[in-house]
Amino acid sequence: MSDRRRVGVVLANLGTPDEPTPAxxxxxxxxxxxxxxxxxxxxxxxxxxxxLFILPLRPKRVAHAYASIWQGDSPMRLILLEQxxxxxxxxxxxxxxxxxxxxxxxxxxxxALRAALTELxxxxxxxxxxxxxxxxxxxxxxxxxxDQVASWLQQQRNIPGLHLVRDYHVHPAYIAALAxxxxxxxxxxxxxxxxxxxxxxxxxxxxxxxxPYPVQCHATAQAVVALLGLQADEWAISFQSRFGLQEWVxxxxxxxxxxxxxxxxxxxQVLCPAFxxxxxxxxxEIAVENHETFIKAGGKHYQYIPALNARAxxxxxxxxILRPQVQAAAACCGSMAPVAASCPARATCGAVCEMCVSAxx
Length: 361
Known about the structure:
Elements (H helix, E strand, L loop, with lengths): L4 E12 L5 H12 L9 H27 L5 H20 L3 E12 L3 H10 L4 E6 L9 H13 L6 E4 L7 H18 L4 E7 L3 H5 L4 H16 L6 E6 L12 H11 L3 E5 L8 H17 L4 E5 L6 H21 L21 H7 L1
Parallel strand pairs: 1-2, 1-3, 3-4, 5-6, 5-7, 7-8
Helix pairs in contact: 1-2, 3-11, 4-5, 6-8, 6-11, 9-10
């Protein structure tokens, strides 16, 4: 075993089926839709709705949609693994005095979040950093990650130090990466009449109870708009992927696109900032279904701007978000490098910065 102290990092995303088949989708939906964080309906009532109506009927249609975007594996899983490999290289290069282990984890499906935590602990990581790849905090997405981490910790005797990122909805590097992706799309395809920021929706009652997600979505969009220098009539924000009969946060993406098409808006480009990786909701719902909605309503040109995925600027942002957490973890596990004499913060710093690592070497 290496003499270097080990710090674990988990990049966590929502989840995806193992295969684009009805059986695999049914397993995934059973796990996902059984989470009380996602569905806030009395358990007994939801038990019968889920098992009598949703699980018998929905998997076949959803499996067909997954099959249309499958790339030998789920795009979300492929992208998450690519992100993990890239961040592993970056953090290992940035902190040579540490042995950093980066693992993928999903709230639902595979690779499982609990398995990632167990693997890191068994490998000797006494400090673990968890980054939920949900820029905007919601009890429906970040919440299940925190719940699973807490549940896993309850089963441990040798409890590791935990460093958890709550959100990064206006982190400068994240906002810069979004703006860069839009500018690059403009350079290659020209500008549309409207830029639409489409975020995954949540039920309106969740927001009414205090979920900060809609507010943070607006803050993200406004920060990107400020970098792009857009005027008020050149962009809008909306919410997609509603499910069930209750009211969700508005405006709805499909309804807004239909209204735009009918009112003479000729071209639209859609960005989905809440998704750190392309998935069913972006590649099928936004890129295909909503394209048809806009064109049928009278629109002429519609383009989806891909998620940040494993773009260099996105990896820069993930690294920038992780660095303070890794530094704090390193300090906690007693792996601080000697402080360089020239460091301006040498009296108070509790982190392993590049200057100090260089001094140690």
